[in-house]
Amino acid sequence: MAKGSQLSQLKAALNQAGLSRQQQNGKKRKRTAPDDGEKEKKAAKLQEIHQKLNPFDVKVTKLKHDVGGRKIIGTVGRPAQSKQAGIEQRKKTLLKEYEEKNHAGGIVDRRFGENDPTMNPEERMLERFTRERQRASKGAVFNLEDEDELTHYGQSLSKLDDFDNIGLGLDDDDDDGGQIDKSTVHQDHFGGFDDARDEDEEGEPTRKKSKAEVMAEVIAKSKTHKIERQAQQEEDENLRHELDQELDSLRSLLFTPAPTGAPEAGPSQSQGGVPSTAAPHTQDPDQEYDQMIRELAFEQRAKPKDRTKTEEELALEEKTALEKAERRRIRRMNGDPEQSDSETEGKGKKRARQRGADDLDDDFMADQEWGALGAGLGDESENVGMNEDEDEDESGEDEDESEGDEEAGSGSEEEEEYSVASGDSEDEEAEEGETEALTTRVKEKPSKSSSKPKASKELPYTFPCPGTHEDFLEIVENIQDEDIPTVVQRIRTLHHPSLAEDNKLKLQALTGVLIDHILYVTSPPKPRFTLLTSLVPHLFALTKSYPIQSAQHFIEKFNLMNMNLKRGLSHGATDSNSKTWPELPELSLLRTVGMLWPTSDMNHHVVSPARLLIGAYLGLCRVRSLQDLTSGMFLCSLFMQYEQLSKRLVPEAINFLVNAVLHLAPHSFKDVASLPGTFPSPDFNSEHCARMTINSAKAKNLTPATPDLPALMTGEVAEEQMKVDLLGVALELLSRFSEMYKSLDSFIELYEPIAEVLAGLKAGKLPSELATRLNSLRDALSRVLKFSRQARRPLRLQAHKPIPIATYIPKFEQSSSNYLRNRDPDHERNEAAKLRKQYKQERKGAIRELRKDARFLAAEQHKKEKEKDREYNERMKRVFTSMESERAEEKAMEREKMKDKRRSGRK
C-alpha cells in the first residue's frame, strides 16, 4: 500500500487494480456494455480495497499459542457489520412486534350456528351435515365424463362398437338445433371423415374414430347441454319466486299503507282512482303484477330528480325570488295590474290581465306565486285599501336607500367612532375624559302610521346593505322586532358574496352593524333580549364566514370598554358617580362572545382579551351598590361558562363570590384580620357595603327566586328580595366552582378558607330556604375536602435495595493450575459444572441480547419523542415569535406616546 494520505492511497490502489478512469482521446470511442462477470470482478476488487483502507472494520484477536493447521472460530470479527446486521434484524422482528403490540385482530367464525346460543352442539353438527349433503346433492345429476357408467338396457355403451342391432335413437327433446358446439359440427359432421388427420402430441397420426364413438360424443354433449339448460331454468324460477316473495315488502316502501278503519286500496284500483271490474280475490296474479308495474310508472319517487344545485345557484334563485316578490308588492301598493312572468322577464310591457264576462276580481290571491321565502310574511288582503300617497313615498324611499347604500362605503362616522376605540389618538386622555358609549344612541322618531296597527304594513322583500348602524336603524325604523331577523336574512340573501364583487365587504361591515345593534337593543330603559337571541344566529354565520373582520370589531369594542374602565377608576373606584362596572349592553356583548367563539383555547384573539377584561372588572372595581354586585355575579357566571371545558382557575371570580357572601349574609367576623385565608377584601365593612346585609326581620318569609338581570340592574326588584336572590346566586356559583375545581391539586388550599367563611355565617338569621342551601353547601364542601385530603400523598424517598457491607475475607482455591481447575475426577460433577457454565454463558448472552433489544427500543422511542418535541418546539417558537413581535410593537407605541407626552410638557 502506498504511503501518504488516504486519498492518495485510494488513487494508487485503484490504478494498481486497473479501475481508474482512462483519459479519453479526441476521437469518441464506442462504449460497450460491461459483462456481468466483469461487474462482479470489479465489485470484488472494490470491496477488497475498501477493507484494506478501513482497518477498523475488522477486529482480530491475537492468539497466545498459534498452532498451525488449527482453525479457531471467532478470531476475526467485523463489529460494524454485525452491529448493523443486528439492527436490521431487530427492525424486521422486534420493531414490528413493538408497533403491533396494542393491535388486536381476530378471525370471524362464520360456521352455521356457531354464534347461536339456542342450539346445542348436537343440533349444530346435524344442521351442518344436512347443509353439506344438500350442497353435494346440487351437483351434476349425471356423470357423463365416465363412459363406464353410460348403459343401455344393462349393457355398457363403451363396449359397443356400433348401433346396428340396437334400436337407440335420439328423442325429440334431444334434437334441439344449435346445442352442439361449432367444432363438433365442423369436424365430425362435415370435415370429420376426411383423409387428412391431425397428429397427436407424440407426432403420430391420430386413430380414426368409429361411428359408435362419434355418436357417443354427440349424445353426451347433447345431454350435457340439456342438463345445463334445465339447471339454468330452475335457477331462474327460484330467483323469480324469491322476487315474488319480496314484492310485498318492496311495495310497502313505495306505497303508503291504508289508515286503520279505512278500506285498503288494493291492486284492483288503478292510479286514476277507477276500480277494476274484477274483485281482488278473483284477479289473475299476472294481471295484478302487470297493473302494479303500470302504477309504478306514475310513482313520483320512481322519477329522476334534478341535480343538487350549488351554493351560488341557490343564492341567485333566492335573490331573484325576493326581487320578483318586491316588484309585485310595489305594483300592489301602487294599484298597478298584475303581470305574468313571461311579460315581465321578456318584453317588460305592462299589459292588464284579460277579464271574462263573469270576472268578480275574487282571484287576486290565486295569481300570486310567493315561493318559499315570501309566504306568510304579510297580510295581503289588508294592503288593498292603503293610501296611495304613502305607498309611493315608501317605494321612493326604498329606491333612494338602495341607490345610496350601493355608493356609500363604510362611512366616516363609523371610522370616527372606532378611532376612539383603537386608542391611537386619545389614549393619553383615557383617564381624564368622559365615559363613551359603545354604540351610537339614535333618538326614536315617531312613525307616521303610529296610530295604525303595525300588522297592516307589509314587510318589503329587498333592502340595501347598511354600512353603518344609523343606516340599519333607518331600515328597521317601522319594522317590528320579530321581523328584524327576517330583514337581516333577506339582506344576506340579496348580498351574497357570489353575486357581486363588493358584497363580501358589505357583509363584513354588516357584522359590525349587528354588533352595534345588539348593544343598542340591550340598552336601558327597555332592553329587548328576545331580539338579541334572534340576531345571534345571523352574527354567528357572519363570524364563521369572516372571522378576522368579526374579531376586529369585537376587539374595538373591548378597547373602548377598557378605556371606559380606566376613566372610571381615575375618577375614583369608590365614587358612586364613576362608571366602572359594566352595564347591560357590555354584559350582553360579553355573553355573546362566549356563544360565538371557542372559550377553551389556550390563547384566542377574542376570548383572551374578553377574559382579561372580565378579570379586570372583578379585580379592580369596588362594590358600591347591589347593582354592582349583580353585574359582578353575572361576570362570575360568564367565567363559569368560559371555563367549563378547560377548567382553568379564576381566582378573581372566587374572591368576588366570597366577598359577596360576606356583604350579604350576617356573619360573626369583626374585621379583615379575623377573616380566614389570604384573599383580598377591600370593601369588607365599608360605608357602601354596610347596608347590603340581609335584614333577618324583613327577609324572614322571603324565598330566593330566579334572578332577572334587567330588573336587578335597573332596581325594579325590592331591596330585601334582591339581597336574598343575590345571596342564593352566590351560594350556587360557589357550589358549581367547587365541582369544577375539585380535581385540582391545590383544591384544599383554595376551598378550606371558603369552608371556614361559610361556617362563620349565621344561618339562623337567613330565610329557611337559604339556610338549607347554606347547610347543604357546607356538607358538600366538607366531603370534597375530605376526599381531597385522602387522595393527597406526601412525597417519599425512592426505595432502594440496601447496599451490603464490604467483606475482606480472602478466597482460597484448592488447585493453582489453571488447566486443572475444571478437571474434576467425578464425571457427574464435572458434567454438572459444564452445564452450569453453559447455562451461565447462555444467560449472559440472553442478558446481552435483551439489553441490546432494550437499547434499540429506547432509541426508537427516543426518536419518536425527539420528533414530537421538535414539532412542539417549532409550534412554541411560532407562538413566542408572534407574542414577541406584538410586545415589541406595543413597547414601540408606548415609547412614541411617552415622547409625545414629553414634547407636550407632561410627565
UniProtKB/TrEMBL annotation:
<feature type="compositionally biased region" description="Basic and acidic residues">
    <location>
        <begin position="183"/>
        <end position="195"/>
    </location>
</feature>
<dbReference type="GO" id="GO:0030692">
    <property type="term" value="C:Noc4p-Nop14p complex"/>
</dbReference>
<keyword id="KW-0690">Ribosome biogenesis</keyword>
<feature type="region of interest" description="Disordered">
    <location>
        <begin position="106"/>
        <end position="132"/>
    </location>
</feature>
<feature type="region of interest" description="Disordered">
    <location>
        <begin position="878"/>
        <end position="907"/>
    </location>
</feature>
<keyword id="KW-0698">rRNA processing</keyword>
<dbReference type="Pfam" id="PF04147">
    <property type="entry name" value="Nop14"/>
</dbReference>
<dbReference type="InterPro" id="IPR007276">
    <property type="entry name" value="Nop14"/>
</dbReference>
<feature type="compositionally biased region" description="Basic and acidic residues">
    <location>
        <begin position="204"/>
        <end position="214"/>
    </location>
</feature>
<feature type="region of interest" description="Disordered">
    <location>
        <begin position="1"/>
        <end position="43"/>
    </location>
</feature>
<feature type="compositionally biased region" description="Basic and acidic residues">
    <location>
        <begin position="225"/>
        <end position="244"/>
    </location>
</feature>
<feature type="compositionally biased region" description="Basic and acidic residues">
    <location>
        <begin position="291"/>
        <end position="326"/>
    </location>
</feature>
<protein>
    <recommendedName>
        <fullName>Nop14-like protein</fullName>
    </recommendedName>
</protein>
<feature type="region of interest" description="Disordered">
    <location>
        <begin position="160"/>
        <end position="463"/>
    </location>
</feature>
<feature type="compositionally biased region" description="Acidic residues">
    <location>
        <begin position="379"/>
        <end position="435"/>
    </location>
</feature>
<feature type="compositionally biased region" description="Basic and acidic residues">
    <location>
        <begin position="121"/>
        <end position="132"/>
    </location>
</feature>
<keyword id="KW-0539">Nucleus</keyword>
<comment type="function">
    <text>Involved in nucleolar processing of pre-18S ribosomal RNA. Has a role in the nuclear export of 40S pre-ribosomal subunit to the cytoplasm.</text>
</comment>
<feature type="compositionally biased region" description="Basic and acidic residues">
    <location>
        <begin position="32"/>
        <end position="43"/>
    </location>
</feature>
<comment type="similarity">
    <text>Belongs to the NOP14 family.</text>
</comment>
<dbReference type="GO" id="GO:0032040">
    <property type="term" value="C:small-subunit processome"/>
</dbReference>
<dbReference type="GO" id="GO:0030490">
    <property type="term" value="P:maturation of SSU-rRNA"/>
</dbReference>
<feature type="compositionally biased region" description="Basic and acidic residues">
    <location>
        <begin position="884"/>
        <end position="899"/>
    </location>
</feature>
<feature type="compositionally biased region" description="Low complexity">
    <location>
        <begin position="256"/>
        <end position="267"/>
    </location>
</feature>
